[in-house]
Design a protein that fits this description.
Layout (H helix, E strand, L loop, with lengths): L3 E3 L7 H8 L4 E3 L1 H19 L21 H16 L5
Parallel strand pairs: 1-2
């Protein structure tokens, strides 16, 4: 079975989710990986400069204007990963 190639960002369709669940390999196009790296670099620069980065050093949704302390950021990021790992919302 040939690998599926993801070439652009977006929400995966149900067919992609089913194919991956069935064991089909996925390749992320180099151009998409480059775009992800650029966004990561931008976020790191913003954090280094003390600027807000949504959901990283701020709350989310109605709390997006609330700046998080270092300890709160660690807890928030852990909770986001746990929620995603169990299929829940952020």
């Amino acid at each position: 079975m040939a690998a599926l190639t993801i070439t652009e960002a977006g929400h995966p369709d149900l067919g992609l989710v089913r194919a991956v669940a069935a064991g089909q390999a996925v390749i992320v196009a180099p151009s998409l990986l480059d775009a992800v790296q650029r966004r990561c670099d931008e976020a790191r620069r913003a954090l280094r400069d003390g600027r807000p980065v949504y959901g990283v050093n701020t709350g989310m949704g109605a709390l997006s204007k609330v700046r998080l302390t270092g300890r709160q950021q660690l807890s928030h990021q852990r909770n986001l990963l746990l929620a995603r790992a169990t299929g829940g919302p952020p």
